[in-house]
Amino acid sequence: MWKIGSIEINSRAILAPMAGVTGYPFRVLCKQHGAGIVYTEFVSANGIIRENEKTLDMMKFTEAERPIGVQIFGETPDVLAQSARYIEEMVKPDIIDLNFGCPVPKVTKRGGGSAILKDLPLMDEVARAVVEAVSIPVTAKIRAGWDKGCIVAPVAATALEDAGIAALTLHPRTTKQLYTGAADWSLIAETRKAIKIPLIGNGDISSAQDAKRMMDETGCDAVMIGRRALGNPWIFNEINEYLDHGTIPEPVRLIDRVKLCHRHLYMETQALGEYRGTNYIKKHLSWYLKGFPGASGFRQRLYTIMEFGAMDEEINRIIDELESDTELANFTYREEGPLFPNLPNSRDNY
Predict the structure, then answer these.
(1) Tens of pLDDT, residues 85-105
(2) pLDDT single digits (tens) 50-71
(3) 321 with 232, same domain?
(4) Which of 102, 150, 220, 261 is catalytic?
(5) Residue 142: Cβ within 10 Å count
(6) Is 220 a catalytic residue?
(7) Is residue 336 part of a domain?
């Protein structure tokens, strides 16, 4: 058990906010599989204060997801403070997280995300404004810096702690790196020495062993999992088991992956409606149904389907086929090695 402010957290494995992915159904699945904190997709502070319907819908959650954070991005202290106040009053999450880490040009060219790391006085002003605007814990996620000539994480972390930020997540790549090259874990260790608030490490965690190694090498208090959780919510339980007991559960069988994918389909259609949910689930299909003999054939059988009833029937048919093929049904693998690149809009782990 550890804390962010007064919020008690029972797992040191945290789900990252991911655009186009961390909607309600996926968050619930990750929470049920051991995630200590889940986050909404990042939402625009401007959209919040304008009460944009789509933006407000992205912040809806259920009590079963607590503790949950809403991550916001924007460019000006006043707008971010107003949006944070609205979130606390109307949405009532446990945490508000400031997105100072998104490297995507669509966000940074307007001054949002990790662009603020080029202007630390503005970052400090934003953080103080938001902290003063609300009574719940405010956290932040940052990157190493803008580029290799502007590595600012330890300095930025100290400033954020002084501004009242309750916990910090560090992805130790620069904005210019995006998701290429290696994450520099030594920068997490350096930042850990600079601050006393909880520090969450993020980047290049492919397994439970990696999570423990990051914590051992850097002294960070928890780890944040993004891409590795796609199609693989079991990773949170694996990390918890390894950190708590030094053991790792047996790999998940293929038939159990398909069954969870089937359940995920139902959850998406309940959240989005049958047509939207059926087509939205297809991005997740590519993550659940991979890494086994004949995977592409299974995916192709589902990709062309547009109707919920037909999708439901076809997944049931696949489950029946697996139940008659014990060897394939019991096929197992772990999500390790290089991360797969087919992410929605190339935006994932902010």
Answers:
(1) 999 999 999 999 999 998 988
(2) 999 999 999 999 999 999 999 9
(3) no
(4) 102
(5) 27
(6) no
(7) no
